[in-house]
């Protein structure tokens, strides 16, 4: 984007040399930028289709993989609020992963897994994590909540960071509990990293009755602080007219409303584990420290670990080195205490097997 801006400035400076009116050139540049943005969304959609094929091929030996179309609340902002259908629920896709060797006459725990990223999506970055969850006998739903990337410009602009996307994610839980008899609605956990960690926290704050346990990894926790250490290109994703519409400086209360660290009074003491890393190059550790201090100040019960400069930075407990798997094993053990999955991964060796071979569940 910065290169495009530099190129635009160069064209404006050279415009008189070519006898072209500056205002006319500005209009052409604007049209060109809009066309490029539209093509970017089309390329993202193609990339998503390719990645979906990878999901099916890389999980086919251990899981039934489906993609279902469900509904969340109506749009946070409607371009024309009085138009027909303007108040209709927002439709979005959700991935469903079901271990191949389950007994359909039994009940199994459910994991809700919201992805991270501003305009991110649930990509095959998570394959080994998903295989580890399948090996334990979890059913998993991974919602592509409003604003996710790869579904067109209109859906992309439905983004509501820390807002109605939280309800989209809970709607995916509700869908699973209502439509799959082998899902145990009393054994539901929610886990997420980064932006997904923020969504996890808000679901525990606002829908605590639906979740038995939660894990928030390197969670975005304080949008006000975040706006302070990120650049304008990042800030513009939030202040865009189709999103929050104002900067943090102009509407600090709205950014606080969307920040878990400023809303811990709503936490109901659902078993919760929080991870952060001091060399995180995305969510600065100061955000998560604010969250931890706020929870402590409210006398909330939770567990946390602040890891010191673990390789991998923001992704330290999601990648595949031995140390990362050791840390991830702690997460699985924490969840298992509350969700009682059919199989427990007892060692890093078990996790390595899960990454490449199906683990047979005991009858």
TrEMBL record:
Pfam families: Peptidase_S9. Residues 1-19 form the signal peptide. Residues 22-49 form a coiled coil. Residues 133-340 form the Peptidase S9 prolyl oligopeptidase catalytic domain. Keywords: Coiled coil, Signal. It comes from the Bacteria. GO terms for biological process: proteolysis. The keyword Coiled coil applies. This is Prolyl oligopeptidase family protein. It comes from Acetobacteroides hydrogenigenes.
């Amino acid at each position: 984007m910065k290169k495009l801006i530099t190129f635009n400035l160069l064209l404006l400076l050279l415009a008189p040399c070519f006898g072209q009116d500056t205002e006319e050139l500005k209009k052409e540049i604007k049209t060109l930028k809009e066309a490029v943005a539209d093509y970017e969304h089309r390329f993202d959609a193609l990339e998503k289709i390719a990645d979906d094929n990878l999901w099916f091929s890389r999980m086919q030996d251990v899981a039934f993989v489906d993609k279902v179309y469900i509904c969340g609340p109506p749009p946070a902002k409607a371009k024309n609020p009085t138009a027909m259908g303007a108040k209709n629920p927002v439709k979005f896709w959700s991935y469903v992963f079901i271990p191949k060797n389950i007994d359909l006459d039994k009940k199994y725990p459910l994991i809700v897994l919201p992805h991270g990223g501003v305009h991110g999506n649930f990509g095959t970055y998570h394959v080994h994590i998903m295989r580890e969850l399948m090996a334990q006998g979890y059913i998993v739903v991974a919602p592509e909540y409003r604003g996710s990337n790869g579904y067109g410009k209109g859906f992309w602009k439905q983004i509501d960071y820390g807002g109605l996307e939280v309800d989209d994610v809970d709607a995916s839980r509700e869908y699973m509990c209502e439509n799959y008899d082998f899902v145990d609605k009393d054994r539901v956990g929610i886990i997420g990293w980064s932006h997904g960690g923020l969504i996890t926290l808000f679901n525990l704050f606002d829908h605590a009755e639906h979740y038995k346990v939660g894990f928030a990894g390197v969670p975005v926790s304080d949008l006000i602080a975040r706006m302070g250490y990120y650049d304008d290109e990042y800030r513009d994703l939030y202040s865009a007219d189709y999103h929050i519409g104002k900067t943090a400086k102009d509407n600090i209360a709205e950014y606080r409303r969307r920040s878990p660290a400023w809303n811990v009074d709503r936490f109901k003491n659902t078993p919760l584990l929080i991870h952060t890393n001091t060399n995180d190059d995305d969510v600065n550790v100061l955000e998560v420290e604010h969250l931890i201090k706020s929870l402590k100040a409210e006398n909330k019960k939770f567990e946390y670990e602040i890891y010191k400069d673990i390789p991998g930075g923001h992704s330290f407990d999601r990648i595949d080195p031995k140390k990362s798997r050791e840390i991830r094993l702690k997460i699985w053990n924490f969840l298992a205490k509350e969700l009682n999955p059919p199989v427990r991964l007892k060692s890093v060796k078990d996790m390595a097997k899960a990454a490449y071979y199906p683990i047979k569940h005991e009858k």
